Amino acid sequence: MNERMKSEESPSLNREGRGGSSKKNFILAMLVILGVVTFLDRINISVAGSSIMKDLNLSAAEWGWVQSAFILSYGLMQIPMGAYGDRHGHRKVLTQITARCSPRLCSGGRCSRRSRD
To answer: pTM above the 0.70 mark?
Structure first.
């Protein structure tokens, strides 16, 4: 390596030659995990669709309305929540959303199936 290249090393690199810090890597890992979880949330409703249709006695057309309402509301909330994040800080807003939604999602798993007579 010539002297010119050595003197022009990037200031963002640490001694080992890797950029960033463990805090940034942790945040990135958490964002990736959160992205996977939200992806799974979106596809779970379609995977469980046949069981939900059967339990609620929904036709295919009615199930289409349920899916459309879910996807539309999910997509429409991205706009105001993005603006809210810009105003109040993305980290704070993402933490609040996760803290509020996680107990609700977990409580859904505790629901039992009851027969309707």
So the answer is: no
